[in-house]
Design brief:
Elements lengths: L9 H15 L1 E3 H8 L3 H13 L3 E4 L2 E4 H5 L3 H6 L2 H12 L7 E4 L3 H12 L4 E5 L2 H7 L5 E5 L3 E3 L4 E3 L1 H7 L4 E6 L3 E3 L2 E4 L2 H12 L1 E7 L11 E4 L6 E4 L5 H9 L3 E4 L3
Parallel strand pairs: 4-5, 4-9, 5-6, 9-12, 12-14, 14-15
Antiparallel strand pairs: 1-3, 2-3, 7-8, 10-11, 11-13
Helix pairs in contact: 2-3, 6-7, 7-8, 9-10
């Protein structure tokens, strides 16, 4: 006899709704009601709340992913502020020591970081959900690369979802290198809920968390908070934070490294 699956709580249901939108681009109320085993009224209310928070665009009979509308894919992001990303990547690569076990999440800056790190030819073990990161580090014969399973998202060129998070939990790393969409007094944020979940999973399984973030993201806030400032050990950027944000970072015990060309 089949068992009725347990319904998700509102927060988890809405997080999975955003993940579904990230994959599909648009979704209908009737589809959400069926997928999450809720009434159409509950599905409509979820969409309305997420739209009010700016996480999606409400459409007739459903919703559209604001990430797909407003956020460029990783290929476009890689071409933006390329010089700044290169400087950040070089400084971050110098923080890695031979023998380190690393976790590297999916993103434009972390992909550049992986290319710079590969050139150092260190003995490393690297776990990542990002195909460009895995490809770059696979050119180093001394580097063991572990690619996370999960739902492949072509736009981000990486894997995400429950399988990814559960896989990350099996390992322990010396350092986690993550990117983000914004950094403010309230913490580190991003527009993509699936990506936030992977970042948090990596942070929990690493002794140190190093945030790679260019200065255009200072004082920018996105829909979901990845973590509080105190959860970050080191920030690497190409420019110093504004005074108020710098004070918040000092108070939270975050070491700030300003990379130089």
């Amino acid at each position: 006899m089949s068992r009725r699956r347990q319904r998700l709580g509102q927060q988890e249901r809405q997080a999975q709704l955003l993940a579904l939108l990230r994959r599909e681009g648009t979704v209908r109320i009737a589809t959400l009601a069926k997928v999450f085993d809720v009434t159409t009224e509950t599905a409509r209310r979820d969409l309305d709340e997420l739209a009010a928070a700016g996480a999606l665009k409400r459409t007739y009979g459903g919703g559209a992913s604001r990430s797909l509308i407003d956020e460029p894919g990783i290929g476009i992001r890689n071409r933006a502020r390329a010089a700044e990303r290169g400087v950040i990547a070089s400084a971050a690569a110098r923080m890695v020591e031979s023998g380190d076990a690393l976790m590297i999440d999916c993103g434009s800056t972390t992909s550049v970081f992986a290319n710079v790190l590969a050139a150092r030819n260190l003995h490393l073990t690297v776990l990542t959900n990002c195909l460009p990161v895995a490809h770059a580090l696979s050119t180093n014969a001394h580097c063991r690369v572990i690619l996370c399973p999960g739902d492949y998202i072509a736009r981000e060129v990486g894997t995400f979802g429950t399988d990814t998070i559960e896989f990350v939990a099996k390992f322990k790393a010396d350092k986690a290198f993550i990117g983000a969409g914004g950094l403010g007094h309230d913490g580190v944020t991003d527009a993509d809920s699936m990506g936030c979940s992977v970042k948090r999973a990596m942070m929990q399984r690493a002794d140190r968390t190093i945030l790679l973030l260019d200065s255009s993201k200072y004082d920018r806030m996105h829909f979901e908070r990845i973590c509080e400032l105190a959860d970050i050990d080191t920030l690497v950027s190409e420019a110093a934070p504004p005074k108020k944000l710098a004070a918040s970072l000092r108070l939270a015990g975050v070491q700030v490294t300003v990379a130089k060309a």
